[in-house]
């Protein structure tokens, strides 16, 4: 079905090449030949500058790709690329067959289908929208989930908006208990709003994708590590924003593109993942591949010297996006970020999400201590978050808060046997918590013989005698301890703070 809007084509004021407008709501376009940014005034085009070339994100999406949503066909006609403090992301401008427009935007490793929203009342100023605070827009309750300074870095096709290139402007994301997200950007006046819900690419019945037409995705891309020079293979080319070198363990930032100056950071004390990178397994009816791994360290809020650790595996499925397989001393869990936000009680002791009430189990500080593989956000060693874990039976709900963003994930516990079977591993290697008996620190065995126990008892007695002697001399010892069996982080959260987009 063709769009009811009249298509309009005119020569580019910069080079004379044809520039097409298929939607009457598109006021701007970028010439595909000379990259001139042009503005449409009636049937007259004026050149307003030149737009930088797109950075290659290896997305399977491309202009003129077709899809369906809620029974209505659409075409991707434009593309905006942004960069902020939390990373870079892309928004695709959509033209529906009935003339409506919308956006298909990246959101925490997934996608959101959004449509323009026109507020009926004046909006609060950005400075009043503080992170994690509650607000109301047109009588609807929202929670501020992200505050960011973003800038447009590249554009393509026809667009309803075109903020000035490389000029930072405020972007705020509000999330609701109805699993919705409302984005507000002040890149133009009046501010532009878009109301969206999560969507999986498989729901959109997309055709004309890049790999269908040009076969350009052939297993990723390669470059030399900026630290050691070894070849680094990027397998998850469409979404990776950071990766580690398998030779020297350096963390490499991909946001500038592999043709630019690659930033990197060294890390030592590697931790060995139990589930190997690259492994594929069937969990909850979905085929997942392990693409990233991180070890994280938690700290008791009332005892900064007490630490506990856990592991997170980043899983990827082309149609479902990303999930996290979390390994703690209480067992395994599978969690995924959500678009909405729960309702919290006073003191945040309970959280209600989509009708289910979860009770808070733990609250603690967390940081990333080691990473390996590929990630859809610019991961850094030492990234710190404030975590809260909630539970309802085997159901899990967790939040992570950084200076810019609050993200929530939801999931459920999975048995060690299920994980072992899914990835073809020995269950004894995956023993944790209640379903596997006591867990010892990493690098040690999972059981003790009688002789070992006797030796340990003797050592404990000797240690107690020494400590008693020290106390008699008026000495008091102190220090920090590391607990590998702390019950915290049963959910594990995800992604050490996630990414705005």
From TrEMBL:
Superkingdom: Bacteria
- TM spans (from-to): 451-470
Q: Which UniProt keywords apply?
A: Membrane, Transmembrane, Transmembrane helix
**Ranges of Low complexity composition bias in the record:** 482-493
Q: Which InterPro entries match?
A: DUF4178
**What positions does the domain DUF4178 occupy?**
63-199, 277-415
Tell me the segments the record calls region Disordered.
478-501
Tell me which Pfam families the record gives.
Answer: DUF4178 (PF13785)
This protein is called what?
Answer: DUF4178 domain-containing protein
């Amino acid at each position: 079905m063709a769009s009811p809007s009249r298509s309009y084509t005119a020569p580019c004021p910069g080079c004379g090449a044809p520039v097409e407008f298929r939607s009457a709501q598109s006021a701007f376009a970028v010439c595909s030949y000379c990259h001139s940014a042009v503005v449409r005034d009636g049937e007259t085009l004026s050149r307003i500058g030149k737009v930088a070339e797109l950075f290659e994100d290896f997305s399977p999406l491309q202009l003129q790709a077709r899809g369906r949503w809620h029974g209505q066909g659409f075409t991707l006609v434009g593309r905006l690329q942004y960069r902020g403090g939390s990373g870079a992301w892309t928004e695709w401008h959509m033209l529906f067959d009935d003339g409506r427009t919308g956006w298909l935007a990246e959101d925490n490793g997934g996608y959101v289908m959004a449509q323009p929203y026109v507020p009926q009342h004046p909006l609060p100023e950005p400075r009043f929208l503080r992170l994690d605070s509650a607000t109301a827009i047109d009588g609807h309750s929202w929670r501020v989930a992200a505050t960011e300074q973003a800038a447009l870095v590249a554009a393509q096709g026809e667009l309803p908006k075109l903020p000035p290139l490389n000029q930072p402007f405020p972007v705020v994301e509000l999330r609701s208990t109805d699993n919705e997200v409302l984005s507000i950007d002040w890149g133009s006046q009046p501010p532009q709003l878009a109301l969206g819900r999560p969507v999986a690419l498989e729901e959109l019945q997309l055709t004309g994708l890049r790999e269908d037409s040009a076969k350009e995705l052939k297993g990723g891309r390669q470059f030399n590590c900026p630290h050691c020079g070894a070849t680094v293979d990027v397998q998850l080319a469409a979404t990776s924003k950071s990766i580690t070198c398998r030779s020297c363990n350096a963390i490499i930032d991909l946001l500038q593109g592999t043709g630019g100056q690659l930033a990197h950071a060294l890390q030592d004390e590697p931790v060995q993942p139990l589930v190997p990178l690259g492994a594929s397994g069937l969990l909850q009816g979905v085929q997942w591949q392990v693409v990233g791994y991180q070890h994280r360290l938690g700290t008791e809020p009332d005892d900064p010297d007490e630490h506990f650790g856990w592991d997170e595996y980043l899983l990827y499925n082309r149609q479902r996006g990303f999930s996290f397989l979390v390994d703690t001393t209480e067992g395994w869990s599978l969690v995924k970020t959500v678009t909405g936000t729960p309702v919290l009680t006073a003191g945040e002791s309970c959280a209600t999400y989509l009708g289910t009430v979860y009770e808070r189990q733990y609250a603690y500080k967390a940081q990333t201590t080691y990473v390996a593989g590929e990630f859809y956000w610019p991961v850094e060693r030492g990234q710190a978050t404030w975590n809260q874990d909630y539970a309802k039976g085997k159901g899990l709900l967790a939040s992570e808060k950084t200076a810019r963003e609050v993200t929530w994930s939801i999931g459920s516990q999975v048995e060690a046997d299920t994980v072992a079977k899914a990835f073809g591993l020995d269950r004894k290697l995956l023993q944790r918590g209640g379903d596997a008996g006591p867990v010892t620190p990493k690098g040690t065995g999972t059981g003790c013989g009688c002789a070992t126990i006797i030796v340990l008892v003797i050592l404990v007695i000797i240690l107690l005698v020494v400590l008693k002697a020290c106390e008699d001399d008026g000495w008091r010892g102190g220090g920090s301890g590391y607990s590998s069996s702390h019950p915290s982080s049963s959910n594990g959260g995800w992604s050490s703070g996630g990414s705005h987009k």
